[in-house]
Amino acid sequence: MPFDGTRKAALIMAHPGHETLLHHWLETERPTVFALTDGSGGAGRSRLDCSRELIEGAGASCGGAFGWAPDRLWYQAVLNHHAAPFLDALASIEAECAACDVATLVCDPVELFNPIHDLANALTHALAARLERRYGRSVGVSIYPIEDASRFRRDARRLPLDTAAAARKRAAIRRYTPLAHEYPRYENLATQDHEILAPDAPAFAWPPVLQEVPYYERFGQARLAERRYDALITYADHVRPLALEILQAALVAA
Fold first, then answer.
1. Residue 89 forms part of a structural domain
2. Considering its fold, how many domains does the chain have in total?
3. What is the CATH number of the domain that holds 188?
4. Which residues are CB-contacts of 105 (< 8 A; sequence separation ≥ 6)?
5. pTM value surpassing 0.85
6. Taking a C-beta distance cutoff of 8 angstroms, is the pair 139, 8 a contact?
7. Residue 253, pLDDT score
8. Inter-residue contact 46 to 24 (CB < 8 Å)
9. What is the pLDDT of residue 192?
10. In what order do the strands lie in the sheet with 32-37?
């Protein structure tokens, strides 16, 4: 079911800060927002307070699973083939969504840019399937661009920003100082005059072999060469197996 704005919504994102890309949607739909990580990255500094201020300032709310664990623990779980943190977060988010009758989900897309982004997508599809079993009705999953809007179909829903909405969004982003160093990387997406939502159907198929090397593998190889990383997360060895295990959880009652 595509996002239609008529049913209570939730946003499931890998990292706090992604909500800046959907600021006006937060204002119009007032979803419950969940974040897997605390956005601390390698520096160890959480972004949760800044995100909470932005989300609540837009009229939305933060769920209980908001900054479920620090980034380093998530990446360690991926390297160790440890699905438990994902499944625990899934169960917590499911319980809260069911209590609020959430039936429209928005999540990070599979862009092969960051493994936690992609696994948040798998978690959301597992969540949708489990909510459908609870409700006996369909649950929509929509995605939004983080790194690359060119992959989105032309029929994606575009939420226009009027002058006032665009000004509020720019002001909110300027106040989000923890992302100041990253802002130029996705400036076009963050400052365009509309926000994009597209039904994630069909969901990513998680094929055994990809036609492209994920960005996170190329980035990780460079960090290994610089001796800044000790191990490499790969799609075939880590991300795909975990995604399939998370999706398998959709078949198991919470």
1. yes
2. 1
3. 3.40.50
4. 9, 10, 11, 12, 97, 124, 127, 128, 139, 140, 141, 142
5. yes
6. no
7. 58
8. no
9. 75
10. 61-69, 32-37, 9-13, 104-107, 140-143, 194-199, 157-160
- CA dist., res. 126 & res. 105, Å (int): 11
Alpha-carbon span 54 to 64, nearest angstrom? 17
254: which residues sit within 8 A by CB, 6+ positions away?
90, 91, 94, 95, 130
Within a domain: residue 66?
yes
d(CA 114, CA 14): 9
Backbone angles phi, psi at 50, to 5 degrees: -65, -40
Give the residue numbers spanning the domain of 240.
9-251
What gap in Å lies between CA 189 and CA 169, rounded to an integer?
12
Query: Residue 2's pLDDT is what?
Result: 40
Quick check: is 2 in a domain?
A: no
| Residue-wise pLDDT tens digits, 9-32 | 999 999 999 999 999 999 999 999
What does the block give as tokens for 45? Answer: 């500094």
| Parts of the chain with a pLDDT under 50 | 1-6
- The answer to whether the beta carbons of residues 89 and 210 sit under 8 Å apart is no
- What does the DSSP 8-state code read for residue 235? I
197 strand-pairing partners: 157
Question: Does residue 3 sit within a domain?
Answer: no
pLDDT at 72: 93
Cis bond upstream, residue 16 (ω within 30): no
